[in-house]
Amino acid sequence: MFPWLTTLGLIPLIGSGVIALLPKGRDLLAKQVALAISLVALLVSLLMLADFQKNSGGLQLVESHNWIASFGIKYAVGVDGIALLLILLATILAPIVILASWNEAENGRFSVKAFFALILILEAFMVGVFAATDVFLFYVFFEAMLIPVYFLIGSFGGTQRSYAAVKFLLYSLFGGLLMLAAVIALYVISKDQFGAGTFDITALTKLHIGVQLQRWLFLGFFIAFAIKAPLWPFHTWLPDAVAAATPGTAVLLVGVLDKVGTFGMLRYALPLFPDAAKFFTPAIIVLSIISVIYGALLAIGQTDIKRLIAFTSISHFGFITLGIFAMTSQGLSGATLYMVNHGFSTAALFLIAGWMISRRKSSLISDFGGLQRVTPVMAWTFFIAGMSALALPGLSSFVSEFLVLVGTFTRYPWAAIIATVGIILAALYVLILVQRSLHGPIAPGNENLPDLSRREKYAIAPVLAVIIVLGFFPKPLLDVINPTVVQTMQVVGVTDPAPTGGK
Amino acid sequence: MNPANYLFVSALLFTIGALGVLTRRNSIVIFMCVELMLNAANLAFVTFARIQGNLDGQVIAFFTMVVAACEVVVGLAIIVSIYRSRRSASVDDVNLLKF
Amino acid sequence: MDSAHALAAGSSSLLVWLIALPALGAAILLLGGRRTDKWGHVLATGLSGGSFVVGIVELIRMLGRSGENRGVSQHLFTWISVGHFNIEAGLLLDQLSICFVLLITGVGTLIHIYSITYMEHDLDRRRFFAYLNFFIAAMLLLVLGNSYLNLYVGWEGVGLASYLLIGFWNQKPVYATAAKKAFVANRVGDFGLSIAIMIAFATFGSVSFDGVAAGAGKLANLNSGALTAMGAMLLLAAAGKSAQFPLQSWLGDAMAGPTPVSALIHAATMVTAGVYLITRSNFVFDRAPTAQLLVVIVGVITLLFGAVIGTAKDDIKKALAASTMSQIGYMILAAGLGPAGYAFAIMHLLTHGFFKAGMFLGAGSVMHGMNDEVDMRRYGALRKFMPATFVTFGLGYLAIIGVPPFSGFYSKDKIIEAAFNAGGARGLIIGSAALLGAAITAFYMTRVMIMTFFGKARWAEGTHPHESGKLMVVPMVILAIGSVGAGALLSIGSSLKNWLEPVVSRGFVEPTPRLSPLLVSTLAIGAVALGVLIAYLKYVRQPIPELAPTDVSIFTRAARRDLYQDAFNESVFMRPGQYLTRSLGFLDRVFIDGAVNGIGALFGGTSVRARRLQTGYVRTYSLFILGGAAILVAAMLAARL
């Protein structure tokens, strides 16, 4: 079979090399090449769908080659429904980000072409991290992703970019090292039990690990993912990183890269350590609820648009972890769908906020006002993005948020009720933002802001279209997600609670 | 004579040398004290060879003397060049390699 | 009661067009932008009218079927399907929803027509019509959805439309704030609806009306915890959408929107969605008496609350808004009375839709002629200058205070009667409250009438009141006809009651009335007469000052400030909330981020100190070497010993 996933990873990687080799000063050419390559990758990822059987929950499009044979390390990739959607998310958002960030890289520490090369490298690593089925390979991609992001924030960001980049790097490395320890422990255990050590995820789920050890290993994985996700109280790197990053970087960071955290919980932490996961579930549910409420409350209090969006994301990641650890089919499917929807929703928010900020040369909410009169198209798109952030029914995030809440309610009613308070707070933070930036009299300095350009419209239109279409017709995604969720629940050994009044 | 007495002398010489290295500032004196410590070690080697009844220690003593000679050549050259550039043979004046 | 009976017996492929036509209009107008400025309003009005025609067609078809088989459904597509959680996008049109469909599209189309003239000079008229069409579509989805989740989509859709229309002139910060307030209060209600849906799914494994009805019917005991909780949460949802206590405070501020919006959304249709929700959920409430009691209490509190506020308002729209709140209180009260009251709730809802929409359009017409003045103290004597407005408004007035044979008399009288029939002390209390509400209604509506149309002219200088154009008058006339005749039409021969019976009160046997209907009617008319009399004495016999007097009783002061509802919300929720967000922001920086940065600083500080060991002095290093060697030797010796 054609090696779809390897091809998909190699296209942007080779593309970044091509861009790096372009002659100096040909910035426009670099941008066009980057856009073309990301579009090719998108095309390949869509072609890949043809070979994907949506009714099977297992891994597909599998490739496996020995890499470091003496340690049983393989280059093994493959996707289930969840990984497939996240890879698609990455390949769809990459061209949009490139198009939207056309002029974002001019003031960087490095050249313009470096920016676009880094974005393509990041895309390749993101494909790799979601496709890896070898825990060691996953770890390598997990850490390798930090490198392009570190340079994207640290070299092309705004004020405080060095601080933010280092903070991001240290946080992630810290979590990554905990995970590495757990990964090595898994190898050692597999050597004991199978005779030959392996990092293969499917094989590792068959290990019998003692209760105590399982808990420690689970924590190793979980903390790494909770930092990446980010879950309260590991969240403080996100607002700083996002506020310092360019909007395009922020989209890839929050929209896709952070999903590795929640994806990892679903793909690794749950199936590998089911007993430990159940043991820690109450604590994680509590952390998730705190994230939901805390992120929303802090978002209400923000004065900076990008930080506000960052805190809304913390709130939304709380919903995702809540759905995962509710361990019901609605919760898991909802959480997975949420990952995709949140990717598009924050992409819209960050991109439009970025355009607003680059026009106004300020990211303070109080500097905006009356944009609906000056720049109606930009205001409308921002409004729709905001509505998607507050999960308005009819937009995609509603479906996922409601699935998470319903799925949680059947097992932990009180957790769901408290999390539902988040929807009221969501209305507050979105509407306060909308009122201060779009409504009211035209603020001084805003009179002559230009509306969205043609390029910007092309970049944002597909995102908004996806948000609306998936709101009414999430079925294609759910059809892909559901079999995988069923399989995950079998591995973990949980079933949906039956209706209480049905007898 | 009890061979242990040579060891005592060796220890005494080594201590004198070490104290000299620690306390003196003049690089030539420090250099001499290092030589003193090397020779204390030589004495110990020879004594042990005598006690053990084989030649290993004595051979090593020769090696040490050769190494010490080389060291003197290089070391004195460095000291002279430092003296030329800084007009001082005090080691405290060359503390540039610090935090 | 046969709860397992499915609501729909047949299917109809027309239903989707009810929603699709106005939705299409909204989409064309919003995406088309300035290109559609010239003809956008005509298209929007036409599509709304088209939806009304489809409604009529469905009504005629429905009339051709027998009572049990009138409901029809249409399956559109599978919306969400995960595990047992299967939601189809499906529509349901039965006897209950057809009432709403006709009200929404009928009144909606009239208000479209009215707005053509009313918004003529507004630069954004096209956008206004797009929002109106969007509202119609969302509201139809609300009443046509066949499950709670589908209803929820429409429920939030109308909330969004309401937000957009209240904030239509959002360049004024006050208006933008009013819009936000409405949305947030509605979201509190949505919280209730969300929880109710979750309870339904966790308990019955279904969120469709059919599924929940079947499940609720199977539950052995009345008042099960799940049903009571679900009922209470549905009530919270209804309170948010219908401006009922304790979520009532947004409705007064919502008058910031253009007047046609107030007529359509904040009087006739959207705010009555709560009544629809409770009536639609009859299978829940009928088996949860505790929840029903809560509904009644909320209804009674709100009907008095709104009435009291209405007595002190000088802003004509706010007076009407307070009245709306109070009238919906009546409907909620009736819906809380169970099978005995559902039909009356819907009847009052329909008649109220006519007369209140008519009065709002009248108020809009007055404002149109008075340079957008809303203070009734600056009106007066307008009956000569705006005869058509006066007559239509006056008919609406007679209807709302419940003068026979106008429509409000039939519907309100029935509710008061049903309240007394609830029996015991409870019946007496709510019946008296309803009577008292009727008297206060008569008082404040008479006040509005007198201050606007009678007495001396107290106009601001340069005001030249004039009658509005034809396109505005015609809808007012049609609604006035409804205000006069709808009550009798729906009431005589219990036509509406029999019509709705298969849906809301199947198999319900009416108990013998405890008070004779004649006595109740007499009491009600007496209460109305008393209210009118007091208003007459106060506002005709005494001159009306142009500025509101300040030396007023504590009650008037409280009523002017909406019984301190905003002060309460501000001091209990808003200010502590602001304090909380601010202090959390501070704690986040100081503690959580502080801990992280602190760890970083710790390592940094340690390395700064450790660095000091590199002095650059050779003897320091040699001392370390010596010390190290000594320790090594000591360790070796110690190991050997």
Question: Overview of this structure, please?
Answer:
The complex is a heterotrimer of chains A (503), B (99) and C (641). Chain A is mainly alpha-helical. Helix content of chain A is 73%, strand content 3%. Chain A has 21 helices and two strands. Chain A has helices at 4-21, 27-48, 81-100, 112-131, 135-144, 146-156, 161-194, 201-204, 211-228, 237-244, 247-257, 259-272, 274-300, 305-326, 329-360, 371-374, 376-389, 396-411, 413-437, 454-472, 475-492, and strands spanning 60-68, 73-79. Chain A starts with a helix and ends in an 11-residue tail after the last helix. Chain B contains three helices and no strands. In chain B, helix 1 runs antiparallel to helix 2 (27-52) and helix 2 packs antiparallel against helix 3. Chain B is an all-alpha fold and 99 residues long. The radius of gyration of chain B is 16 Å and the shape is elongated. With 641 residues, chain C is mainly alpha-helical. Chain C is 71% helix and 3% strand. Chain C has helices at residues 15-32, 40-63, 95-118, 125-144, 148-166, 173-204, 209-218, 225-241, 250-253, 259-268, 273-280, 282-285, 289-312, 316-336, 342-369, 387-401, 407-421, 424-453, 470-491, 495-504, 517-539, 554-560, 565-611, 618-640, and strands spanning 10-11, 72-82, 85-93. In chain C, strand 2 and strand 3 (85-93) form a beta hairpin. The radius of gyration of chain C is 31 Å and the shape is globular. The chains are: A mainly alpha (503), B mainly alpha (99), C mainly alpha (641). Chains in contact: A-C, B-C. The interface between A and C is large, with 65 and 61 residues.
